[in-house]
């Protein structure tokens, strides 16, 4: 809207004194009639990177809204669904996403792969344990993502497999399910919580980063230090 202001602080990479490429966005701020919003990139000492508000709350949702790019939903969450192969009604406590064979499937959130292998009707199957009592499962895969095996940590958006039709299946699709505190839930209807805020033990480091970034946003000055240049720009 006219009069609104948007400010960015980002990295520029240099090679032999020549601008090479744009790097990460380190901070962003919006000022408008409806208020102000600030995002700050913070990397904890343990290597976790995320964008946070000035209060240290994550701006990322705990889960992605879907685990793949799909054509349509072929079966919804139901306690009484007619099975197209078995020809009788039984619960379908997940969502079937129809998609072309080989479509990448990603983890909806950070977690640990607790099961990677063949699982009866589900065929090639991956189960991921998330924080706060959540699990997500991915069935009928054609193959697994690179490095995906039991016990490995996975990041939100990481490819864990590819759409297939393994197991009891009529065609290429993903059988996707979410468990919360031991019970299957309809993922299309749950309210997705925000990702974890800055941990208390890293609050001091976050405050130092925040102070530096807000200073850069406020004065819109350029910090020149090769091989990176931190640039503040306003448009």
Automatic annotation (TrEMBL):
Domain named M23ase beta-sheet core is located at 91-186
Tell me its cofactors: Zn(2+)
For whether the record's keyword set contains Metal-binding, the answer is yes
Keywords per UniProt:
Hydrolase, Metal-binding, Metalloprotease, Protease, Zinc
In the record, biological process GO terms are:
proteolysis
Q: Does the keyword Mitochondrion apply?
A: no
Name this protein carries in UniProt: M23ase beta-sheet core domain-containing protein
Question: What organism does this protein naturally occur in?
Answer: marine sediment metagenome
């Amino acid at each position: 809207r006219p009069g609104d202001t948007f400010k960015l602080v980002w990295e520029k990479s240099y090679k032999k004194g020549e601008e090479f490429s744009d790097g990460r966005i380190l901070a962003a701020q919006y000022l408008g009639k409806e208020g102000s919003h600030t995002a700050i990139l913070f990397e904890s000492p343990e290597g976790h990177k995320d964008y946070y508000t000035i209060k240290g709350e994550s701006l990322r949702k705990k889960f992605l809204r879907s685990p793949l790019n799909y054509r349509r939903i072929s079966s919804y969450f139901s306690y009484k669904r007619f099975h197209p192969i078995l020809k009788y009604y039984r619960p379908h406590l997940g969502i079937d996403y129809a998609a072309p064979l080989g479509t990448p499937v990603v983890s909806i959130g950070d977690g640990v792969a607790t099961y990677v292998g063949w699982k009866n009707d589900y065929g090639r199957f991956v189960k991921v344990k998330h924080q706060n009592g959540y699990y997500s499962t991915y069935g009928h895969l054609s193959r697994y993502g690179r490095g995906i095996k039991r016990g490995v940590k996975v990041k939100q958006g990481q490819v864990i497999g590819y759409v297939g039709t393994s197991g009891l299946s009529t065609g290429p699709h993903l059988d996707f399910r979410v468990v919360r505190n031991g019970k299957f839930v309809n993922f299309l209807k749950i309210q997705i919580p925000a990702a974890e805020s800055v941990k208390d033990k890293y609050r001091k480091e976050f405050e130092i980063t925040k102070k530096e970034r807000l200073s850069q946003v406020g004065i819109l000055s350029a910090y020149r230090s090769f091989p990176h240049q931190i640039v503040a720009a306003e448009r």
